[in-house]
Amino acid sequence: MTARPAVTLDLVLERLGAHGRLGPVPPTVRPDVPWAPAGTELPATSSAAVLVALFEDRGDVRTILTRRAARLRSHRGEVCFPGGRLDPGEDAVGAALREAREEIGLDPASVEVVGWLQPVVTRSTSSHITPVVARLAGPPALAPNATEVARAFDLGLAEMAGEGVLREERWSLPGPGAPPTAPGTRTYPVWFFEIDGETIWGATARIVHELLTFTVPGFPPAVPAEPSP
User: Fold this and answer.
1) DSSP for 159-205?
2) Interatomic CA distance for residues 117 and 131, integer angstroms
3) CA nearest 214: which of 98, 61, 80, 89?
4) 138, 134, 166: which is closest to 3 by C-alpha?
5) pLDDT of 188
6) DSSP state letters, 129-140
7) Please, how many CA atoms are within 13 Å of residue 139, restricted to the half-sphere of its CB?
């Protein structure tokens, strides 16, 4: 794996600003649903938020991820950003900060919320997830809650954008590997980041992919065209 040159936190925030991702989430923003036709409105079964916490360490911007505990009812063992469902009357920012404190012991007072990334919908549960982007002053001291988190770790953006980390598959409805049943059958990209002994995929990979696309020059790498059927 070859990492790309590191980028500074100031540059990351500048690029997020250039894409309109700083400040609060506009109320008109719709979630990303790559498997549905453009403009499709899917009812959300629940609303959730995750914290995309960014900090700079020796000139390299890094973000915090967790691997969910194997005993959890849903998404067990998957890599994700700290986060969870909104409580009644709670907004995305409040939920992201609360969940980060509960899951990894991150003090909300040490977190400066700066923006957002494209909300996403999970295919398995139709949960609407809002990624809240925040800045930390430096590497945090984490205290993972073992009932929810098997591992808490951080990765550099340049590392995740490095050669050989990203893998793309094309899935078609009704599920992975399903062959097209007729000309024009919809397919959509599903991304996998293989790094640090972990596999990042699903909604988390879609969030990471957008973050890297906006902030790391030259990402995403060119993907070979699919062979003709």
Assistant:
1) HHTSBTTEEEEEEETTBTTPPPSSTT--EEEEEEEEETTEEE-HHHH
2) 5
3) 61
4) 166
5) 86
6) EEEEEEEESSPP
7) 9
Per-10-residue mean pLDDT of the chain, 229 residues long, equals 76 96 92 71 78 94 90 70 95 97 96 97 86 97 90 95 92 63 72 95 96 92 50
Q: Look at residues 88, 87, 64 and name the one whose alpha carbon lies nearest to residue 207.
A: 64
Task: Quickly tell me which residue has 């065209």 as its tokens.
Answer: 225
50 within 8 A of 95, measured Cβ to Cβ? no
Amino acid (1-letter code) at residue 214: F
The sign one gets for the Cα dihedral 203, 205, 206, 208 is positive
Instruction: Give the residue from 150, 125, 124, 151 showing the smallest Cα distance to 70.
Output: 150
Which of 136, 99, 114 has the alpha carbon at shortest distance from 24? 114
Query: Could you give the domains of the chain?
Result: 9-215 (3.90.79.10)
DSSP H or E run through 15: helix 9-18
pTM for the full model? 0.89
The answer to whether 90 touches 136, Cβ cutoff 8 Å, is: no
